[in-house]
Amino acid sequence: MNGAEQNDRLPESIGGLIGFAFATWWQRAPLYLGVGVVVFALQALAQAFAPDNAPVAVASGVVGDALMTAIVALHIATRATGGDVSTRRLVSAGIVRWGDVTGATALATVAGVFVAPLMIPGSDQTWLFALLPAWLLMGALSYAGPVTAITHDRPIVAIATGFGRALLLGLRFANLGRTFVAGAWVVLVFYLQTLVLLALHARHVPHELFWANAPLDALTVGPLAAILTAFALDAARRLRERTAPPT
After folding, report:
1. 51 — pLDDT class (breaks 50, 70, 90)
2. pLDDT at 4
3. 154-to-20, 111, 148, 160 alpha-carbon distances in Å
């Protein structure tokens, strides 16, 4: 995995990583807001051609989110090494990685379908025992897109290797605490979308699934990708430090 291997500028602390992610995202905020419009437009087109079709809505969200993730992850990785890149090159590189990131994100989304129900409160307290592992899994799965974006594996192959590396980094014992923190941001967005969906359903708002997910997704996917990339780079750095031969 490439990333912050040379001239490491990544902060060491959890708060520092989050601050670094937000600050780097803010540097290109107009670009990411523009990409967010594209993310929303893709989902709006899907809604227009296949109204209230959940699989189509999820697929369009994955495709749009992958574009944002690829661009943001490459920007975070570049800044983590102390470098910089023009907006044009950043977007071009993101588009090149878009397909592989879409594939890895799709794998993570399919896996997340089985994990998400474990985070929904049940009629008793037993669901709390499943919450922690589900939270950790969501964090690790969410590394798949950023990790795939910033590696240099061959196209198509990068889908499997990026997904696998994400799980290995996120679920490594030494990284579990930080994976939990990263997962908290993913879970927060999940709960926000769920609450909005319930509110829209109670008010009988038409096309509730679209309005509960697409706007929030377009607004949050960029900052979320920045945080996840910073944490994934940190996980890789911690692995290198623990496995490096003594000098």
Report:
1. very high
2. 47
3. 29, 23, 11, 10
Query: What's the mean pLDDT in 31-51?
Result: 97
How far apart are alpha carbons 88 and 75 in whole angstroms? 12
d(Cα 176, Cα 129) in Å, to the nearest integer? 17
Mean pLDDT of 20-39: 97
**Please, are residues 237 and 84 in contact by the beta-carbon 8 Å criterion?**
no
Task: Say how far residue 150 (Cα) sits from the centre of its chain.
Answer: 13
Residue 143: DSSP 8-state: T
Q: Which pLDDT score, from 0 to 100, does residue 130 have?
A: 72
The pLDDT of residue 152 is 87
Kindly list the distances between the CA atom of residue 22 and the CA atoms of 25, 72, 134, 148, 176, in Å, as whole numbers in the listed order: 5, 11, 25, 21, 22
Please name the amino acid found at residue 11.
P
Closest CA to 109 of 154, 59, 74: 59
194/119 Cα distance (integer angstroms) = 11
C-alpha neighbours within 13 Å on the C-beta side of residue 191? 12
**How far from 205 is each of 52, 142, 193, 217, CA to CA, in Å?**
12, 30, 15, 19
Mean pLDDT across the chain, nearest whole number?
91
Residues 49 and 54: their CA atoms lie apart, in Å, by: 12
- Pull the structure tokens for residue 95: 């588009």
